[in-house]
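Q: For a teaching session next week I want to show students how multiple molecules come together into a single three-dimensional assembly. I've collected the sequence lines for a complex. Could you give me the predicted structure tokens for the whole thing so I can convert them for display?
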Amino acid sequence: MAIAHRQRPALGKNLAWRQGWGRFWTAVVVLMGAIALVPLAILLGYVLVRGAQRFDVQVWTALTPAAGQVGGGLGNAIVGSIVMVALATGFSVPLGVAVALYGTEVCRQAWIRAALRLAVNVLNGVPSILLGVFVYGAVVVGLGWGFGAIAGALALSLIMLPTIIRTTDDFCQGFPPEQRLAAYALGATDWEVLTGIVLPAALPAILTGTMLALSRAAGETAPLIFTALGFDFWLRGLSGPAPALSLTIYRFATGFDPNQQNLAWTGALILLLLVLLTQGLARILARLAPPST
Amino acid sequence: MTNTALSLPQIRKLIQRQNVFDQFVVLALLAAALSSVIVTAGILYILISESVSFFSQVPLGEFFNLVDPKWTPLFDDKNFAIITLISSTLVTTGVSVAIGIPMGTIIAIYLSEFATEQVREWVKPILELLAGVPSVVFGYFALQTVTPFMQRIVLGVQMFFAPGRDEFDYYQLPGFNMLSAGIVMGISIIPLISSISEDAMRAVPKQMREGSFAVGATRLQTSFNVVLPAAISGIIASYILGISRSLGQTMIVAVAAGTQPIYTWNPLDGAATISTFIVEVAKGDIEHGSLEYNTIFVAGLALVAMTLAMNLLGHYLSKRVREVY
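A: Of course. Below is the structure for the complete assembly, covering every listed component.
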């Protein structure tokens, strides 16, 4: 359809106007995107600069100082965090992988899968502080185990569980059924298919999920207030109040002692480095994953 | 080939043994799956049962008191008007949403539709790193950095519009305020919103964009009129996740928003949210089975109810506005 001669200038003007308008708003979007990134960059920079002030050997070896005390470190808090996160990983990884395997590999009824998925989604949606409240009500008070590293680890494992279930589940759903069928055709049993075919293939996915869950659990504070309570000395056992890095940051950050505040920033930096480390590892693991065809 | 030399009964026995073992494995996996359901049910059960025993001691009218709301469960003169805590939870969430949703969406649009591959490779890991920053670090950042900055801004705005007074005659922003906490909470949900929204936008088929370009739309028109509506259900899902995260966010508000349960809708005030209250109770000594003990669970139930309502709304919305292509 030919355009009437007298309409052409109008069309050209319209096009120029639209392109100009488009460029203007593109610039606005790019600018606002940059602005949105600024506070994020500031946060990272601030933690880096303030945290580096006390980033020395003592931080790793010395006990947390009392208010007014000079020096000190975060040694006991770091050990407490490591112990609790390790225990939580030990609880949640086997359980989470088993749940995901049951949902995708073993279970044949659709309604059980739906119930399972609903439960995991709800668990994932519950604010982390309420997971702490639950463990407090059920284990610390309910079972009478008292505050301790075990209770803290249980609360952390509830935080890790949905992430591990989800990543394993996602992988198993995308895993080609032909490989399983081939194994069955060779006479393999369910157990052999699970441990010989599905689990080895899913290992990188499981490890990636574990890394993500682990870095989240290491920084969690709210649930530990109810379960680990915090402690100013070295961890003495799995029961009895336990120190944790995140709890120490919280207590020092809300206090008024400058030495403690500096240590809180250093603790924040350590947590940030841990996140960086686990994410780097997760990325490497994801790259190691065999191409699933 | 080697001769395995098994008699038929031997083979039958082997298969039987294997079947028993397999059934045992299936049972073990079932137990694991059940335990995750039981834990979820247990959380809801404990919240509800402790709340029931709370309401056997406190009348419902007192709990939903809107006329003269006070929340003082730890004092001698006990008051339990939950709206005191809900108002501040909503205010901080509101501020955080006002920051997080526009910024998260814009970053998502930028990354998915405008950014070059190199920029994306730089920005995405930074966002991922931020998604992993512990919330207590965000809280400390709010208290130590954002609050002083906001105090200066509030002062500066007043001096600009009503100059000439002495510095301390102006309104001073309190050291603990919901505004700073909300702003930082908004920053903390940006990575969550932008990464999920970006995934949703990138899942929109390329042909739709090309069709839009073919009829002469600019890139901006395409992003807002074609890609955004097509990806809307994923984007709404990211908003819902961000809002639920803000509602349940504990450490940022506990550190930066103040710990006094005050009934206020003013973001410049400091007030305790539901999660702050729970933390504050936990820091003191509580007796098992006492009314104070029950209030933790009733506050927790209110929080879960809000999060759940948010999720239902999101489910309904994303179904309703979904564009099928």
